[in-house]
Amino acid sequence: MAANPSPNGASADSKYAIEARNLNVFYGGFHAVKDINLKIERQKITALIGPSGCGKSTVLRAFNRMNDLIPVARTEGEVLFHGKNIYDPDVDAVEVRRRVGMVFQKPNPFPKSIYENIAWGARINGFKGNMDDLVEEALRGAALWDEVKDKLKESGYSLSGGQQQRLCIARAIAVKPEIILMDEPASALDPIATLRIEELMKDLVKNYTIIIVTHNMQQAARVSDYTAFFTVTPERTGYLEEFGPTKEIFTNPKSKITEDYITGRFG
């Protein structure tokens, strides 16, 4: 998986979209997350939950090499995508981020028109098709088309917070990723806008694999198929305590620590 990655060592219909093997991330001398082993199933929603500082967002960013943008960050171990370690020297990080898209906590539309927010990323990724069709397809995919189809030339900033976040989701899917990472995508939104994002995730998962970091356990319980619970050592290093189907994690956790967190005894 170099400039134009292709499946290498894993079939296209593999059960798993991406896999962390003995993943460790350091920020300078600080060991942020330790020995993470996690298989993310294709076309499912996987929620990463746990107390503040447990490394959820660090693990999420490791899935598309966003931690590379932090000068003091160092990653060890493997993240396998189509059987290829995305941290191998011959892998193009920009191509990884095209295929593993990201939606951030706060809506961050470009200072451009609604149309250009979608078109810009597709254009720099070499899209040669009908741009009008692509923009409409992406906005429909993010359940936003009917609200903005008559104001595509207006600034993305003219939209409400919830609409801006759906615009960012449309921007992410316009470049045809396989996986969408979402770092607390509804934490800055009101309850109605949050519900729209949750409904959108349930629709998008028909075509994409979604990994979401959330502090909202009710949200994790509502939207996710699988849940990974992270916690921290006394040295504040994050680790994966338990992973499994969401229903099992919330109703019959194997770990006492998981149970204590879910029932509100700590965190």
Describe the structure.
This protein has a single domain, classed as Rossmann fold, CATH 3.40.50. The protein has 10 helices and 10 strands. It is an alpha/beta fold. The strands form 2 sheets. A 6-stranded mixed sheet has the order 6-7-8-3-9-10, sandwiched between helices. It has a 4-stranded antiparallel sheet with strand order 2-1-4-5, with helices on one face. It starts with 15 loop residues before the first strand and ends in a 5-residue tail after the last helix. Helix 3 (114-124) runs parallel beside helix 6 (161-174) and helix 4 (131-141) crosses helix 6. The model is unreliable at 2-11 (pLDDT under 50).
Major sheet characteristics: 6 strands, mixed
Write down the overall geometry: globular
* CATH-scheme architecture: 3-Layer(aba) Sandwich
Average pLDDT for all residues: 93
Write the H/E string, N to C: EEEHEEHEHHHHEHEHEEHH
pLDDT < 50 stretches: 2-11
Q: Count the DSSP helices.
A: 10
Which structural class do you get from the secondary structure elements? alpha/beta
Which CATH class applies here? Alpha Beta
Which band does the percent of strand residues land in? 25-35%
Oligomerization state: single chain
Q: How are the strands of the biggest sheet laid out side by side? A: 6-7-8-3-9-10
Total of domains: 1
**DSSP helix fraction:** 25-40%
At CATH level 3, the topology is Rossmann fold
Please give the radius of gyration in angstroms: 18 Å
**By CATH's scheme, which homologous superfamily applies?**
P-loop containing nucleotide triphosphate hydrolases
